[in-house]
Structure formats: structure tokens, C-alpha cells
Amino acid sequence: MRQITFREALNESLRYNMRNDDRVFCWGEDIGVLGGAFGVTAGLINEFGPGRVIDTPLSEIAIVGAGIGAALGGLRPVVEIMYIDFTPGCMDMIINQMAKIHYMFGGQSKVPMVLRIVTGAMGENAAQHSQSFYSFFVHTPGLIVVTPTTPYDAKGLLNTSIASENPVIFVENKRTVNIKGEVPEENYTIPFGNADVKRQGEDLTIVATQALVYDALKVAEEMEKEGVSIEVVDPRTLKPLDKETIFNSVRKTGRLIVADEGCIHCGIASEISALVAQEIIEYLDAPVIRVGSPDTPCPFSPPLEKAYIPGKQELREAIAKIM
Amino acid sequence: MQIDNETKIRMLKEMLKIRSFEEKIQELYHAGYIPGSMHLSTGQEAVPVGVCLNLLKSDYLLSSHRGHGHVLAKGGEYKYMMAELYGKKTGYCGGKGGSMHFANVKIGVLGTNGIVGGGICIAAGVGFSIKYQKSEKVTVCFFGDGAANTGAFHEGLNFAAVLKAPVVFIIENNQYAISVPRKLSDCVEDLSIRAAGYNMPGVTVDGNDVMAVYETAKTAVERARSGGGPALIECRTYRWHGHHAGEPKDGLVYRSQEEIDSWKEKCPIKRLREALIAGNIITEKEVDTLEKEFQQELERAIDFAEKSPYPDAEALYENVYIDEG
After folding, report:
1. Structurally, what CATH architecture does the domain formed by B5-303 represent?
2. A196-322: CATH architecture
3. What confidence tens digit (pLDDT) does each residue in B16-71 have?
4. Which of A35, B152, B221, B301 could form a disulfide with B78 if both were Cys (CB 3.0 to 4.6 A apart)?
5. B121 to chain A: which residues are within 8 Å by CB?
6. How far is CA B91 from CA A20, B25, B82, B207, B308, in A?
């Protein structure tokens, strides 16, 4: 099958949805002529014009807020906030409006909007362009939170997100944007709440998200040679969360590492650990270990940033401890 | 501009509809029948009425935490509003919203908002959706002078201007952001001059003169409807009561009785009522009848709200997400 990058897979999904549904439009900072900071919307303005691929003013409150309004008015906005680090400035729109409008008005209105945000530390971007606090959105009732890893997942889940009647936070990790994978040319969807077992194993379950899925797969290959069989489960959507696939894996292996790039404290890794502890603790042969970013801001200096980003080394250490 | 007598009578009627509602729910709130908190717009009736008489049912409206008057002026009905205030299943939002979160999408009320300035950027997007769909609707967005100092005000007005969205932004300037007076909140005389920064028309009008509000809004609404883009209108008015019902001393902690009385002298309803009677457009008796009818309708609304059930326990979990199967 042909191989394309994560970025190209998203671009293909946007193109497909814009061709097939006039209500779909995109806006955000630098998404038109420049094609987005990470190239996801490259070339869309040439096909669909500046009326549907809109370079907005640098106004995050309005980018999200007016996206909500456009959805209330019957459209299907795909809105981009360049970095998750910029969402605190428009958090009122996300938390108080986007997430709550359907509920607080008793189900009268809906906000079928996709908010695309880029996360993750890479390339020495320091404390304000490197974060991964999407667990905050999981903590907010009313939002769907999607965290695709592979190009295949990216295309299928963006299709599902655009078709969804609910507000969706669509998380794109910097480290995965240019990774290639097999993607069918035809259109397809992946349902929310459907985890993917990226690798089968018997001795240990690693539940990993996004870039850490690739790290976990590499470490699992190394460990295979040492006789440790690792299963890698990618939740793909954090809300809804496919608990059953995670639980089934843990029931089989008896050991669990949860790896997510967010800060360890109060993050999704903590939530998944708590769910396993609360519901199937009798299957655990060892304490759960969480792998994630330390409880510090992301530093600039290259060796410090390297120490900050969770990856293969942290996974190896966790495996040594848990086995 | 000539305003016909029929419209003038309708103005009085609509203002009385709001005043009667606000006075009655204030009474009910203090008597313990209405839970939670609520923000009364007594004294500010000319703003929603003057603006909304220019709107069609299909036009959109977004409002603030002080939104009862806007909902009523757009066609909201007492009984469903009362039921919502009581937290009952039959309310506009099934009891999920209450005073700060009224919506009735069928009449274009897309929502009042508990966050000051929360509706401004949303309104810009609603306006964009109208333009995108080549429809001829208009969006109006009401908020207070406090909201005019939020970042959302700047972003929303600029965004609407850049997109040439058909939105009329209305600052309902009632002089106070809770307890903080205008003089501590901004350094301009007319908040409407801020429109110049977005290259849109900005007008300040006497918000207690319903005919002036009506005429000013008419120009802005017609302009927006015909593709001319957004506008900003500041309506100078005054809230007679405290920030919320039940506020200690009902607003007297931070303002004087003389000030309140001087604004009561400028009551928008009194002004129109006296003018219409003096002009032989309506009689005292007809006004009394109107007031009585509203009182009767309120009694029916209270009865409806009282007899309505509370939401079922499982409603707590409903409408968080739309079920997509």
C-alpha cells in the first residue's frame, strides 16, 4: 500500500471533507497561504479559495469563539490553534462555551466543530511551545479528545471528527507529523473509543499515546530479543476511552506501563492507572508505572530538553523495574 | 424617521412585558420560590425592545448574564422562562440552564451567557455563518459596559469587521460592572468610539429612549442585512437594582439613593407612556389593561412552573454528548 505522512493524511481528509460537504471550512493562523505551521493545510487554499480556507487575525479567543458561532449557525468548522500552549488564552471559549453549550441549553443546540491543536516537545521550542496538557480537555465534560498516532489513524479519526455532532479536540503531536505509514486512498472512518493494539505481547502491556507509541514499539522490539514479550495498546481517543481493550490486555499480561507525553501528575496516564487499579487490580502482578514529562516546564537548552522529553530511555527504565 | 403609532404601542407593550416579568420574579426570588442567582434588567427595558423590534424571528440573538429582557423582546414566553427559573423540566433548557443560560433556538435566541463577554466572539462566528450561507439574517449581540473591557470584545469586534459579518453589537451601558463604576473601568466618554478601531460605525444613544434606540438599531440592522458589515451601538441606561437579586443593600453600597432616583426619573417606560398618552395614542385605561394582562399571564406562568415536574434524575447525564451510535 502507498505510504504517506501523518501531515499528508490529515490534508487528504480535509480535502475529502471539503469536497463533499460545503459546510466544512478551515480557519486559523497562517493556515492559508502558508499552509499551517506544520503544513497540514498546505495547498487547500488553492483548491477551495480564501473563503473556505481562512487566514485569521491573531486572535485565539475569536478563532475558537467564532468557530463555535459558525457551528451554531449550521457550519462544520475545522479550527486550528497553532500550539496547545496558545489555548490558555482562549480557554473560556473551549471550557465554558464549546464544551457546555449543548448541555446547558438542554440539548437545543450543538457545536459540531473540530479544534486541531499541535502538542509535544521537539526542536528546542522551550516552555511555551512544547506542552502536552490535553488531559485538561479530558477533564472537561462535553469534549471528545482524539490523539491519533499513525497516518492511518490520523485520516480515519479526522474523518470521524468532522462528521461528529460533538465538539472535538484533535491533538497532533509534533514528533509524528512527518512519519510515514500505510494509508488507503479511499475514504474510511475510525470510531471514537476504539483502541488499537499496535503490537501483540504476553508479558507486559504498554498503553502509549502518539509519539510514545513509536517509542514503545521500538523498545518492545529490543526487549523481544531479551525474551520479554510486550503488548502495545494505543487508545487513539482519550475521551471516550476504550477501557475494555486496555483491561483485556492487562488481564492477559498482568503488568502495565502507561506512557503519555503530558506531565505525569494528574495526566491521562494517572487516569488510566487509576481505572486499572480500581476495576481490575486483581490481575496486576506489579505496581503500575507511569511514564511522562517531569513536573517541570519544558527547558530550552538541548540536553535539558532531551532529558525532559519522555521516550525510549524512560520506557527501558520502567520495564527494568516492572519485570 | 417617522415611527408609526402601532410600533410605538408595541414598544410600550414589550417594555411592560419585561418590567412585569422582572418585578414578579424579583418578588418570587425573595420569597424563596426561585433558586440560584439571577440578574435583573429593571430600568433597562428600552434597549432590548428598541433593538429587537427591528429583527425578524429568523434573526439571531446572543446575550449576557442579564438577559431576561433580550429573550422576552425576541419573543420568549413567560411560562417557559418561569419554568426554567424554577429549575423545571418544562423550562426552555429543561432546567439545565436557569437565569444565566436561557436559549430558545426556535426564535433565534442562541444563548445568554454566564461569562461576561462570552457571547461576543461567538456572535462574530454566527454572523460569519450567515454570510457563508449567503443568507440575509442578522445577528445581534448584547453585553454590558463591563464586557467592553474584556479581550474578547476586542477580538470579537475585529474578527467580525475583518469578516464583514452581519452582527450588531450592543453595549448595554448600565454604568457599573457589578460595583465598579465606569470612571474606574475605562478612560473614554463614549464607549462607541472604540468602533473606529475596527472601521465600523459606532453610535452612542440614550438607552432609556426606546425610539432613539429603535432608530439607531434600525440603521445598523439594515446595513448589516444588506452586506454592510458589523456596527457597534452603546446604549446609556441604568440598572435599578443590585448586580444580582439579593445583593446586599440592593446596590446601595457603591451608589447613592439620589443617583438611583435620578435614573428612575428617566424611566424608559414612564417616558413613553406619558408621551403616548399625551399624544392620544393610547389611554391610561388601555395601559392599565395591558399591565393587568401581563399580571394574569404571569400568574398562569407561575402556575405552570409550580405544577411542572423537576427534571428526572437521569437528566443529569443527558445532553453531555450527542449520541452518535
Report:
1. 3-Layer(aba) Sandwich (3.40)
2. 3-Layer(aba) Sandwich (3.40)
3. 999 999 999 999 999 999 999 999 999 999 999 999 999 999 999 999 999 999 99
4. B301
5. 61-62, 64-66, 68-69, 93
6. 38, 15, 7, 30, 9
